Amino acid sequence: MNAGFRPEPAQPQPGSPTQAQFEPLYVPPNPEPDENIRHSLFGEILDWMLAPLLLLWPMSIAITYLVAKSIANQPFDDALEDRVTVLGQQIRTVGGKTVGQLRTAGRDILRADDVDSVYYLLAGPDGEHLDGDRDLPRPRANRAGEPARSGTVEFRNDTIHGTPIRVAYAYVNLDPLHERTVSPTPPPPLALVQVAETLDKRA
Questions:
Q1: Which of 13, 45, 177, 184 is most buried, taking the most CB atoms under 10 A from its CB?
Q2: Residue range 17-34, pLDDT digits in tens
Q3: pLDDT tens per residue across span 96-124
Q4: Please, which pLDDT band fits residue 43 given cuts at 50, 70 and 90?
Q5: Are 163 and 202 in contact (CB under 8 A)?
Q6: Is 0.70 topped by the overall pTM?
Q7: CATH classification of 76-137+150-198, choosing from 3.30.410, 2.60.40, 3.20.20, 3.30.450?
Q8: Residue 130: pLDDT above 70?
Q9: Distance between CA 118 and CA 29 in Å, rounded?
């Protein structure tokens, strides 16, 4: 055999199957059923509706908790307000001097609480201590510079010796005649009355 001879590839005969005839024909995918389209659209609508609800749900729980806690604590605030009103009646001016001191029995009644610790403070117009707990924090100064108003019991949260407390306080007008004038000058002398308690009952 001649070493330089290479046989030519066989040519396909007429009528014989070719490689193209053996390749599979392209079959387009089946169109997505209408039911699947409806399910996908419904899922998108649910996601669009539920996403805001998932954000509002924790907020609604927090608001409900705060409202319920406020309602539950209202009777305790009312009791503090009554104590402030009673204490305010013990302050008066005698001989040009502000006096206000509870008797031992009254002090014992004021502090009578099986659960919480009770504190109180009576202070004169110049901030002088009249009776009660000296270390009970006093109201912070009004940023707007408005004068204190008498006869209104207000509340705030504070701490004493690192312990949270609820404080009720009011200013007592020691010169009621000033209330009858349109624009009293100088302002009437005001004494401070405070009653506070720890928060064990409110927990």
A1: 184
A2: 555 555 556 666 665 555
A3: 888 887 788 788 888 889 999 999 999 99
A4: confident
A5: no
A6: no
A7: 3.30.450
A8: yes
A9: 81
Give the pair of three-digit tokens for residue 61.
Answer: 């729980």
User: In the chain, which residue ranges form alpha helices assigned H by DSSP?
Assistant: 19-22, 34-88, 104-110
Spatial distance between the Cα atoms of 161 and 150, rounded to a whole number of angstroms: 28
Nearest to 116 by CA among 166, 178, 170, 54: 166
Q: How far is CA 77 from the centre of its chain?
A: 18
163-173 and 190-198 beta bridge pairing: antiparallel
Separation of alpha carbons 34 and 40, rounded Å: 10
Burial class of residue 79 (count of CB atoms within 10 Å of its CB; 0-12, 13-18, 19+): middle
* Whole-number Å distance between alpha carbons of 110 and 133: 13
In this predicted structure, what is the pLDDT of residue 93? 86
